[in-house]
Response regulator SirA
Amino acid sequence: MPEEAKLRYDLRGLKCPLPVLKTRKRMENMTAGALIEIETTDPLAVVDIPHFCNEDGHRLEKAEPVSGGHRFLIRKKT
């Protein structure tokens, strides 16, 4: 089964609240059910990104540590 297409968004180097604000803005024009993968070095993102998903109705598909930060896979609400 081929991997589902996803938009990759590099937010490394940005501090709170910019990763959430930029992710929200980028997701505005995405179609419902689309995937976005973000990578951030902000240590607060492990709290902020799940909270953002919960508040806006998106589904956090995956959260994992990566070298120097974290990677999140988010599915836009349908």
